[in-house]
Amino acid sequence: MADYDLHHHGDREVGPGLVDLAVNVRLPRPPEWLRRELVSAVDSLAAYPSPASAQSAVAARHGRPVDEVLVTAGAAEAFTLLASALRPRHAVVVHPQFTEPEAALRAAGHEVSRVVLSDSDGFVLGPAVVPESADLVFVGNPTNPTSVLHPAAVLRGLVRPGRLLVVDEAFLDAIPGEAESLAGESLDGVVVLRSLTKTWGLAGLRAGYVLGPADVVARLAAVQPPWSVSTLAGVATVACCRPAALEEAEKLAVTAEADREYLVSRLAELGLPALGEPRGPFVLVEGPDDGLRRRLRDVGFAVRRGDTFPGLGPRHLRLAVRSREVTDGFVAALARVLQVLPGAGRRRRRSG
Predict the structure, then answer these.
(1) 316-320 and 301-305: which strand pairing?
(2) How far apart are CA 241 and CA 307, in angstroms?
(3) Which fold is adopted by the domain 10-27+251-338?
(4) Over the stretch 136-174, which tens digit does the pLDDT of each residue have?
(5) CA distances in angstroms from 239 to 61, 139, 312, listed in the order given
(6) Of 249, 256, 320, 350, which residue is 20 to 30 A from 277 by alpha carbon distance?
(7) Helix axes of 324-338 and 243-269: crossing angle, nearest 10 degrees
């Protein structure tokens, strides 16, 4: 099995003076209304935190019983809890995708099989690609880094007796209408993970949650460290589950979709189309050589390297969606560096 740096993340690409297209956090800071709520909670930090209010808020937001919710210190903590609480005989991770699920499983001593989707068919997922013997399956939706959104019906088709399907929906609230989400469905054998990081600019706070069958949630809670979810993370979770916040998130998702389509169109002008059919707030491209990332860095833009994702190589780059103004600046810089290689801007790739 090929060796990949499963612990490499986009924040390691960012540096002083660089425009950040490497980290998939949409806002540079939490919105003002959320900052006010966080500041107002500072005086309560002397008390030990309780996730009860956040748990109830998440349950109401998704129409789930409270015992089907576990609030976590970011969605990433959920991967560690799943790896610690479960004893799979055959764990499978569908790649290319966020690498922390596999990293957590391996750190807990589990063997992991990889199902690698192909760019040649747009990274399309089908139930037949997952071995019948798999009793624990991880898949992202939309998937990081491909930005492909898998149909909910296809995901339901992966459900089997004796199998736990874990769907990472960390970016699903960036999809208008939260299309193809399983978060509101109480399905046997399905766990959904959510994050508040991406939409609300909360990467440093660590706020997320798990939705799943009550018995699975109880097993995860049994191995969760005491007071894992901070007071401020709990306050943020409650605030971001309110109707007004959900309405704002939907508007942000619509804006992100328009900004993504603009980025895709500008990339296509340079002969560098997005791979697959991107639906999330980021796109995947394949450059003409493995030095494009370094040349972009030299002209002031940080992008996410792709060769740490199983199934991708050093020519793959993930680009975070930003405003049209930032995109225009990036595309101008990209056009300049592509001229370093004769004909580099006239690449072939299909867009989906």
Answers:
(1) antiparallel
(2) 36
(3) Aspartate Aminotransferase, domain 1 (3.90.1150)
(4) 999 999 999 999 999 999 999 999 999 999 999 999 999
(5) 11, 28, 38
(6) 249
(7) 30
